[in-house]
Amino acid sequence: MFVAVWMLYASDRLLDARPLPGGHPPPELEERHRFHQRHRRAFLIGITLSAFGLAALLRSASTPAIHLFGLLAALLCAWFLLIHARPLPGDGTHRLPKELAVGIFFPAAVFIPTIARLPQLRLDLLPVALLFAATCSLNCLFLYAWEHPGDRPHAHWSTRWATRHLIALTSSVALLSLGWLVAAQFLVGAVSVRHGTLVLTACVFTSTTLLLLLHIPRRRLQPVHLRALADLVLTTPLILVPLARIIAR
Questions:
Q1: Per-residue pLDDT of the chain (249 residues; tens, 9 = 90+)
Q2: Under a CB-based contact definition with an 8 Å cutoff, are residues 100 and 133 in contact?
Q3: What is the rounded radius of gyration, in angstroms, for the C-alpha atoms of the chain?
Q4: pTM
Q5: 228-233 contacts, C-beta under 8 A, 24 or more apart
Q6: Residue 162 — left, alpha, or beta (φ > 0 → left; ψ -120 to 50 → alpha)?
């Protein structure tokens, strides 16, 4: 998962940083894009080597998981083509919402190993997977809003709408997580599934709540610091892992 996500992020930033036909840099470049462009050759070598490593790692995956990963990879490649095959490279007005892509593809990749091994859990995990998908998209939307304050004319219309309603959207996901956290105790029959669902939902609730809290001091922090903290927010549910083991007993 780590290798695949790193390859995707590095490739996406290199494609975003492509010069325009006249040799001018594209609009809305951040320091991370300029860093990737300055070290383009090193990143391309790293991506190539990582592709070989990923192919070797996939050999240990189960056949159903490989089939699902293959389908997901094909859809992701199609999405990449739609995003980067623009009429004018670097023209932000044609920018498709990458925030939506993150909310679709990353959660799907996270849940594939489990549903491939235990397909009977698909319906039980669906509500939590949808909440997790929303959290991943919200993470990217917060980052975009912090780095591009104002009207954001180069963003996709859906991104502009979502960034204008970030508080309402994030609060809704947090409340839905809290509601499912309560409802899961009564709606899910199997004890093991219930405990797993409770812990996963608690993770989503923790991350969305912390994103809301991080949004409050946004004007006192640099965008690069906000970006690091927003990603840190998604790792804070690790503190619930010991709790999950205690509950499982």
A1: 889 889 988 988 888 877 766 666 666 677 788 888 899 999 999 999 999 998 888 888 888 888 898 899 899 888 888 777 654 444 444 456 777 888 889 999 989 988 888 888 888 888 889 999 999 999 989 988 888 887 777 777 888 888 889 999 999 999 999 988 887 666 655 444 556 777 888 889 999 999 999 999 988 888 788 888 888 888 877 776 676 666 555
A2: no
A3: 19
A4: 0.81
A5: 230/139, 230/142, 230/143, 230/146, 231/139, 233/139, 233/207
A6: alpha
